[in-house]
From TrEMBL:
Its EC number is 2.7.11.1. It is found in: Membrane. Residues 23-150 form the Bulb-type lectin domain. PANTHER family: OS07G0415500 PROTEIN, RECEPTOR-LIKE SERINE_THREONINE-PROTEIN KINASE. Residues 1-26 form the signal peptide. The gene is LOC105037824. This is non-specific serine/threonine protein kinase. GO terms for biological process: recognition of pollen; response to other organism. Residues 333-413 form the Apple domain. GO terms for molecular function: protein serine/threonine kinase activity. It catalyses: L-threonyl-[protein] + ATP = O-phospho-L-threonyl-[protein] + ADP + H(+); L-seryl-[protein] + ATP = O-phospho-L-seryl-[protein] + ADP + H(+). It holds the Pfam family B_lectin. InterPro entries: Bulb-type_lectin_dom (IPR001480), Bulb-type_lectin_dom_sf (IPR036426), EGF (IPR000742), Pan_app (IPR003609), S_locus_glycoprot_dom (IPR000858), SLSG/EP1 (IPR035446).
Length: 417
């Protein structure tokens, strides 16, 4: 005899299954083959690595604005490690990443404009996100034709080779992905540097510009220009730079990121709290980053770092200190040829020196700046008598440990001082 309970159970279960089917989200995919695509509307439409540590797909950067990015799956907030065409987000409707028949992986906006493409041509390819966080396009024989590891944005992952054409570019601000002005790359002398870089002004701030590179154990002899972070947390570069994570050892997920504030740091993921901690930094203090406070601005430590303007100056944009400070002009006074100097002890504005002269008396140094129309200020080191007349005030920093005084030139009639 038939068991009646069986059908009474099976039928409702079957109905429930049918009801749920249209609402089930697609399982994350592990590869994209010809003609298949990811669409921006469905945030579960992503590609994940086999070990489920990385995902790639559309990442929301603003209202109705998305980028095609790769992020860590196991960190509290999606931590993005790579972005395609980071300065050109796409619309939240109709945008797609498509594996085209010609082998190209292509990001298109709502109106089908191509925003980014791997620019390869081959046939029967597929895209895959590897466990290393590397997005690759492979041909049918498994040969890698394109990989995201060759185009880092602001982050380097373990086993991602950094070479002479590579650079990391910081994000423009915290929480943004678009490009900022800090850069990390191999300079022409084969040494890895950190630089503030805009068309108007650039300035290297690491390795310490007051040292010669050898003082920091760096070497310009090896022209191979390559560096890599290994699975143990050790970063070794051809310029003899070696970085060791404070938690050196296997089994920890790490990333080397040039943060929006110009700090290059190694971050380690705590998989139970899903939080990042810093396991190495290039600069121990924010004020060592150049241009943080803009032209004429001064970075001070009290005890955390912040920006101020020198006396006689005012901030250009209080919401963005990188725009610096301007002179508070006294209209009646600007024609005066008589000048005076205002002393800022333990302060330096690194760079923009006319020249550097040793063993000069303070009065002789002051005279050089007084008679030179282009001189805005001078730096003077009392111990060595070093004199630095300056044509502009950049990279300002004030700290008891700075063995340099700055003397800013003003028309004598300026009364606010
Ligand atoms: C995650 O993002 C939220 C909202 O943006 C923010 O408040 C929080 O501090 C972030 N958490 C971490 C660990 O970054
Ligand atoms: C593809 O080619 C376009 C136009 O030549 C270029 O702007 C873009 O950067 C290239 N994309 C990649 C990933 O190299
Ligand atoms: C670096 O760029 C040059 C010119 O763009 C190219 O010929 C060379 O293959 C690149 N090197 C590497 C290691 O990608
Ligand atoms: C590389 O660094 C090590 C230790 O930091 C130092 O002993 C060695 O002389 C350096 N090599 C070169 C070529 O500068
Ligand atoms: C130059 O650097 C590369 C990469 O770090 C290394 O493999 C090579 O041995 C170095 N060459 C010399 C002469 O030190
Ligand atoms: C992760 O964080 C928890 C809580 O703060 C801590 O107890 C644990 O030791 C951390 N794990 C590692 C590997 O640092
Ligand atoms: C770099 O990171 C260290 C450690 O978190 C911090 O003390 C320092 O202020 C940071 N520097 C910048 C430029 O943010
Ligand atoms: C530095 O520049 C000043 C002003 O132009 C000039 O008088 C002085 O001779 C220069 N010193 C050296 C060492 O070139």
């Amino acid at each position: 005899m038939r068991n009646p309970t069986m059908s009474t159970i099976v039928i409702p279960l079957f109905l429930i299954f049918l009801l749920l089917l249209p609402f089930a989200s697609p399982a994350p995919r592990i590869s994209l083959t010809s003609h298949s695509f990811l669409s921006v509307e469905d945030d579960s439409d992503i590609l994940i690595s086999q070990d489920k540590s990385f995902a790639c797909g559309f990442y929301e950067v603003g209202t109705n604005a998305f980028t095609f990015s790769i992020w860590f799956l196991n960190s509290k907030n999606k931590t993005v490690v790579w972005t395609a065409n980071r300065d050109r987000p796409v619309n939240g409707h109709g945008s797609r990443v498509t594996m085209r028949e010609n082998g190209n992986l292509v990001l298109t906006d709502y109106d089908d404009t191509v925003i980014w493409s791997t620019n390869i041509s081959s046939t029967r390819d597929q895209s895959q996100l590897l466990d290393t966080g590397n997005l690759v396009v492979k041909d049918k024989d498994g040969k890698v034709l394109w990989q995201s590891f060759d185009y880092p944005t602001d982050t380097l992952l373990p086993n991602q080779v950094f070479h002479k054409n590579s650079s990391l570019v910081s994000a423009a601000a915290g929480g943004l992905l678009s490009s900022g002005h800090y850069k990390f790359y191999f300079d022409i002398d084969y040494v890895l540097i950190l630089i503030y870089d805009t068309p108007e002004f650039d300035s290297i701030y690491w390795p310490d510009p007051d040292h010669i590179v050898w003082d920091d154990g760096r070497s310009g002899y090896n022209s191979s220009r390559s560096a890599v972070l290994d699975d143990m947390g050790k970063f070794v570069s051809s310029d003899n730079l070696t970085i060791r994570a404070s938690d050196l050892g296997p089994g920890i997920r790490r990333r080397l990121t040039l943060d929006y504030d110009g700090n290059l740091s190694l971050h380690s993921l705590n998989e139970s709290t899903e939080m990042w901690s810093i396991s190495w930094v290039a600069l121990s203090s924010a004020c060592l980053v150049h241009s943080l406070c803009g032209r004429n601005g001064i970075c001070v430590y009290t005890p955390t770092s912040h920006c101020t303007c020198p006396p006689g100056f005012e901030v250009n944009d209080p919401s963005d200190w990188s725009k610096g400070c301007k002179r508070k002009y006294d209209i009646n006074c600007h024609k005066s040829h008589e000048v005076k100097f205002f002393e800022l002890p333990h302060t330096d504005f690194w760079g923009s020196d006319v020249n550097g002269t040793l063993s000069l008396s303070f009065r002789a140094c002051r005279k050089i700046c007084r008679v030179d129309r282009s001189c805005e200020a001078f730096g003077y080191k009392k111990e060595s008598g070093k004199c630095y007349p300056k044509t502009a005030l950049h990279n300002g920093r004030s700290h008891p440990g700075v063995d340099n005084n700055i003397y800013i030139k003003f028309p004598r009639c300026v009364e606010t001082l």
